[in-house]
Design a protein that fits this description.
Elements (H helix, E strand, L loop, with lengths): L1 E4 L14 E5 L10 H10 L6 E2 L4 H11 L12 E3 L11 H9 L2 E3 L3 H13 L5 E4 L5 H6 L2 E5 L5 H6 L2 E3 L4 H41 L8 H11 L1 H7 L23 H28 L4 H19 L19 H19 L1 H7 L5 H25 L6
Parallel strand pairs: 3-5, 4-5, 6-7, 7-8
Antiparallel strand pairs: 1-2
Helix pairs in contact: 7-9, 7-10, 9-12, 10-11, 10-14, 11-12, 11-14, 12-13
Length: 394
């Protein structure tokens, strides 16, 4: 901006002629420091960021370079669109639409063009989040799948039109919200997969036990005890996992995708079958090798099933996480749930009134060793499957 001066008799007599230049003043509003890291996090998570602004193209381009939205090595190949040169949406050719969808920067954009751009991306199957702070942004905030208004500098109209309001006006907060949303979906999947596979293991264990025409591996009241007491606490603890960092290294899920896909159902039945086979193996060892009486055999099978289901919660980690340091092992509620459930199992076996109701008895040292040993088989198998498989469990 140029500054100039002139001498006049009265202020009303001032004319923009005969001015003396004093100098030039430039305004510099640098991007916030954390914007670059937030953009990189978006790119890693498969989120495509587009700058749509009413500012001059040169201003928009330099801001985009400063925050890393465009690659300086590929500037000539990266699309740039000036909104003033855009015809109405209905007059755009197919090639123009493709160029518009590929653009990273759209400058001199009007409120109408923001609406058209959102519509084009939605036609292509994208889920669109729109940020804005002004009155003119309100229609676009309404039309987007997720409208995000600025809480500090945003107008009241923009905040009322949005689905979400940023209290700190930070792009990094949007990234954190995406990460939390993905963690919630992953936790729901873990919760459901865990409970479903435990139920499948009980059904298969009882069904195969009946077909074998031997002692039932688990009785009705014992199943009720497991479902109401033992399974509940680990499942609830799964719901408060912090989320694996690997979740933000994966592309977004299809919003039409169900909580349990076909591969998740395969996991449910595979893991349930492994637990059931381990229970039946413990039962056979107790009968034919240890020569235990029927009540002790049932107790050993019950303990094998209960502990296998407890250890099974440790296989609910993300495939990209480590064996030891992962979102499951870092969750203190998991360890609290496991300790509580083990205490309840000991009470069920050694407290005479409850043991009589559940038809349980002291299995002896050999019985405990068999139950613990076979209960660890599904845990080892589940961890090995996470190492070898190519699709994600959650």
């Amino acid at each position: 901006m140029a500054l100039a001066t002139a001498r006049v008799a009265t202020p009303s007599a001032f004319q923009f002629e005969g001015l003396t230049l004093l100098g030039l003043v430039g305004f510099f509003d640098p991007p916030r420091e954390r914007v670059r890291s937030a953009l990189h996090a978006c790119q890693d998570a498969g989120i495509r960021v587009v700058m749509v602004t009413g500012d001059h193209g040169g201003t928009a381009w330099n801001v985009a370079r400063a925050v890393g939205l465009v690659d300086p090595q590929r500037e000539e190949a990266m699309a740039y669109v000036d909104g003033r040169a855009l015809p109405p949406l209905e007059e755009l050719s197919e090639s123009a639409i493709r160029d518009l969808l590929d653009a990273r920067i759209i400058a001199r954009a009007t409120p109408r063009q923001k609406l058209d751009l959102i519509e084009l991306h939605q036609r292509g199957g994208a889920v669109v989040a729109m940020t804005g702070d002004g009155v003119n942004d309100a229609p676009a905030l309404k039309k987007a799948d997720i409208g995000i208004a600025m809480g500090i500098r945003g107008t009241q109209v923009a905040r009322e039109s949005a689905d979400m309001v940023l209290k700190d006006d930070e792009l990094e907060t949007i990234v954190a919200a995406v990460a939390q949303g993905r963690a919630i979906v992953a936790n729901i999947r873990k919760f459901v997969i865990y409970l479903m596979s435990c139920n499948v293991s009980e059904i298969l264990a009882v069904g195969l036990g009946v077909l074998m025409q031997g002692p039932l591996p688990i009785l009705p009241l014992q199943i009720l005890f497991l479902n109401l007491v033992t399974d509940v606490f680990p499942a609830l603890a799964l719901g408060v996992c912090e989320g694996s960092p690997a979740l933000m290294q994966q592309p977004p899920r299809d919003p039409r995708e169900p909580i349990l896909t076909r591969r998740h159902w395969r996991s449910v039945f595979t893991l349930g079958a492994i637990i059931a086979i381990s229970v039946l193996a413990a039962l056979l060892v107790s009968v034919f090798w240890l020569d235990k009486p029927e009540r002790e055999v049932t107790t050993i099978a019950f303990l094998t099933l209960a502990m296998a289901q407890l250890w099974h919660v440790l296989t609910m980690r993300n495939r990209e996480s480590g064996w030891i340091g992962n979102e499951i092992t870092r969750n203190p509620w998991i360890w609290g749930a496991l300790a509580l459930c083990m205490l309840l199992l000991l009470v069920a076996v050694y407290w005479p009134p409850l043991a009589a109701i559940l038809s349980l008895t002291n299995p002896g040292l050999s019985g405990w060793l068999v139950a613990i040993g076979f209960s660890l088989v599904p845990l080892v198998a589940g961890q090995l499957s996470l190492l070898r498989r190519f699709d994600r469990l959650v």
